Amino acid sequence: MIDALLRSGDPIVVLLEAESSAGPRYCSNAGYVSALDDATAPNRPYPDWLIGVPEIRDELPDGLFGRSSIGWSESVISNPAGIRDAWLNEAWDGRPVRLLIGAASWVLADFEVVFGGIATGLQADGDGNLRLQLRDAREALNRPVQAALLASGPAANEPRPILLGAVFNVEPPNIDAALHRYEVHDSTVTAIPDVRVGGLTVSYTADAANGRFDLGVSPAGRVTTDVTGPLSAAGQILAEIAARAGLALTDAAALSALDSAAPYALGLWIGERANTLDVLDEIASSVGAWWTVDALGRLTAAQAGIGTPVLILTADDFAAQKLELVDVQMPAWRVRVGYRHNWSVQTDGLFAAVAEDTRQRFGREYDIAEANDPSVQVLHPHARDPDVAGTLIVGAADAAAEAARRLALFGVQRRVYRAVCTRRAWPLRAGQTVTVQYPRFGLGAGVDLLITRVSRRLDSRTTEVTLWG
Q1: What is the extent of the structural domain holding 239?
Q2: Are the C-beta atoms of residues 239 and 255 closer than 8 Å to each other?
Q3: How many domains does the chain have?
């Protein structure tokens, strides 16, 4: 439907649907009324009060891994002579907002949702018009992962720990001093294979069904443990953490594809207050992926890289047939990936009987997997040598595979291009791959490039894209 609209030359109608404490509010940029027999909402008016149509910007994170950002300008609503000043007295923050596009002749159900999020407030500008401030659905995730608190023990009123996958050397809270009981997870775990005091294995009674263990005697040193909990794949863990924060909708196909592309076993431990956004970043970055919440309010993610092209762009698709080369990025000659995270680094307090090699492992945060190509340094004397990238990957083989993948991605010189494109590029999204055929910059035969940024006004047929490859 959208492609037909873009081809038609008909004006693009933008609908704004917002909630306030006084109820729903509707408006549009061109005026629209649903039909009397419209199955979605008969005879619903969208008056032409939307005089400032938002620009939506979709952008992958710096370095490609982590939180993909969605930016936008405000929606400006006309307010001649203050006739809608009463709206300023209503509460808008935290309430849903949708933006849809379509044509005046369409039924409401055919309009496509291009933004779904929440309002953060309504303000008046210098001209007296109203500015509705928006945030995408990720704002619902800007909260602690764990709301449940420990009810007893020395750490009472601190967050209950969360453990997913296999973790090494976590320091669980004591929840019953008399029983010397420690909690490792707020639900069932698979196994508690080892408990240590001062670095030495001690006797304990595991209660995997309740995510805890008892020591039986008072420990004479620091208590740490290795635990295997539920789930292990990145997509599964992303969905679980988002659901704990209240976002149950997921793009199941995308998360499944992520787990197929990055079939690594991960281990996550949350032993203190942590923001959901930061935890999701850590999970996605561990497998070289980006994540976001799409226009339908679903958590989605994908491993970053140049994939299967969804479109071929030629010079005819660029405004004034112009593609700009805006940056050349130096390659990395070496990539190091940290794995088997030591969640409780111990540089002292270990008993004398702890073996030297074990002592050293307890004293460092990660084991390291490396992929390198010295020939890159020969060709590029200023080639980068990035810091160790800490991850949640558990196994050495998986870490080595991810290090090799990242070297292939960043071990060659990359270029960044920018262009304003005509209507065919309108459906493109950050994270997709396109083939670009252009008579300059070595692109004549066609080169696959990753879209890292898309920006468009909703009432326009042009789209600005940034390409990497």
Answers
A1: 234-303
A2: yes
A3: 5
